[in-house]
């Protein structure tokens, strides 16, 4: 999935899918600033949406 496609998932119901895609790329060794920045952005969005206070930390 391209960065443009992943970016479209941000602020939608599919935030988890975008996170999973980026996490897979990271785990496979792609540790570029583009991946890291987007991964942090998706982590923040997921934590903001979580109702579980433990996960929000």
UniProtKB/TrEMBL annotation:
<protein>
    <submittedName>
        <fullName>Uncharacterized protein</fullName>
    </submittedName>
</protein>
């Amino acid at each position: 999935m391209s960065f443009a496609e992943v970016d479209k998932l941000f602020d939608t119901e599919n935030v988890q899918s975008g996170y999973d895609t980026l996490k897979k790329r990271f785990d496979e060794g792609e540790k570029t600033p583009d991946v890291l920045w987007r991964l942090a952005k998706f982590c923040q969005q997921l934590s903001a949406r979580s109702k579980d206070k433990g996960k929000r930390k």
